[in-house]
Design brief:
This is Calx-beta domain-containing protein. By secondary structure, this protein is mostly beta strands. 8% of the residues lie in helices and 36% in strands. The strands form 5 sheets. The protein has a 7-stranded antiparallel beta sheet with strand order 11-8-15-16-17-13-12. A 6-stranded antiparallel barrel has the order 2-3-4-7-6-5.
Length: 398
């Protein structure tokens, strides 16, 4: 991660500082970054990080040190187009559940990203805005963060640059940032598009090699996935401080817009989970906790109404709530939005139950479902609630 400061260690994020769900993704000698999603079974990253790999490993920083989890499978977005930076997303399924200490993240689902402040996190090379990144081999990969702002979209920038640019971003699919230093000369989008705005000022940073696949967060949710950087010029003017593609001042970076691709992400996760119930009679209201790691308890949401438009998306918000079970000790708390896409009438919500070998009574927790959009729960019904029982399997207690 390249930042304004000349002290890259200032931007190192250590375990416990709030970004433990950001991981390093290794694929046969090449590495990038990624983010662990809700459910603790899958990582979102860039397709170009793992394309063609026969083996992929996810490396996670934990309070006890780094652990390496081999992937069981991965999937690239079907529209992946490296030449234009389109569909540059991949999902990596872990061969074992992630440690409970690793943060799980939800997706940013709104379409108001442009103008929003973002936090960038990844394992990319460090450096500073004047000199670019430090060459690989001189520093060990470490998790770092920087700040920036989503400035525009890919198609808006293409329109401003004119027909001469050989780049064709899918409409609505890419978010663009620039790396400002507070001067007009090196304000990339000011020079290229007339967007005279230095964004976050001295707090800004840019992605570098190794950050590919890393998340851009808005309000702690994954809004973008790092794809590439570029050094651009227009009408003889180059805002890049040194005219080299090295993540220095005046360059731009593109991110895959998660809200644009959320349907593929959600449905890919659902299809890949063979144990999720698909009918009410398959729902288990009791789940054994296990001795280690996590197991999944499922809730099944079903829509029995009629859509006004066959292409309409339906959604509800949901959140877990303690009963006699305690979040963080007995299960992993989750709060998110579930969307039923066209042709879908039901979907499962997984919640991780934490295993241990301590005898204890059976315990319960709840899932509250609220804020329906595109349908209702019935007259005067504001919230639905379901309960799950965690069954102890460690022996009897008095």
């Amino acid at each position: 991660m390249v930042t304004v400061t000349r002290d890259p260690e200032r931007y190192r994020v250590l375990p416990g500082e709030g970004y433990d769900g950001v991981v390093q993704v290794s694929a046969e000698g090449f590495y990038g970054s990624g983010v662990l999603l809700n459910g603790g079974r899958a990582v979102l990253t860039s397709a170009h990080v793992i394309e063609g790999a026969t083996s992929v490993t996810v490396n996670m920083d934990t309070p006890a040190g780094q652990i390496n989890v081999p992937a069981s499978q991965y999937a690239l977005h079907p529209l992946f187009d490296s030449a234009n930076g389109n569909g540059d997303l991949a999902l990596v399924w872990l061969g074992a559940s992630a440690p409970v200490t690793a943060e799980r993240r939800s997706l940013y689902r709104e379409d108001d990203e442009v103008g929003s402040n973002i936090t960038l996190v990844g394992y990319g090379l460090p450096g500073d805005g004047l000199n670019g990144y430090v060459e690989s081999g001189s520093v060990a990969p470490a998790k770092r963060l920087a700040e920036n702002r989503f400035d525009t979209t890919g198609e808006t920038m293409k329109d401003a640059l004119g027909r001469g640019i050989g780049w064709d971003p899918l409409p609505g699919s890419q978010l663009i940032i620039d790396f400002d230093n507070g001067t007009r000369e090196n304000d990339a989008l000011g020079a290229l598009m007339g967007l005279q705005d230095t964004g976050r000022g001295a707090a800004e940073g840019l992605i570098a090699p190794g950050d590919s696949g890393g998340p851009a967060f808005i309000d702690q949710k994954v809004a973008g996935v790092a794809t590439y950087t570029a050094s651009l010029g227009r009408k003889g003017q180059s805002p890049d401080v040194n005219d080299e593609l090295d993540s220095s001042f005046g360059e731009i970076a593109s991110f895959q817009r998660v809200s644009h691709y959320q349907q593929w992400i959600d449905q890919s996760l659902r299809v890949a989970d063979p144990d999720a119930p698909t009918r009410p009679e398959e729902v288990e209201t009791h789940v054994f906790e296990g001795d280690e790691g996590t197991t999944l308890a499922y809730f099944l949401l079903e829509f029995n109404g009629q859509r006004d438009d066959p292409e309409q998306w339906l959604s509800v918000d949901y959140a877990t709530r303690d009963g006699t079970a305690t979040a963080g000790e007995d299960y992993v708390a989750v709060a998110d939005t579930l969307i039923l896409y066209p042709d879908e009438t039901r979907a499962a919500i997984p919640v991780e139950v934490i295993g241990d070998d301590t005898p204890e009574p059976d315990e319960t927790f709840y899932l509250d479902v609220f804020n329906p959009v595109g349908g209702s729960f019935g007259e005067d019904v504001l919230m639905l609630t379901a309960v799950r029982t965690i069954q102890d399997d460690d022996g009897w207690i008095a």
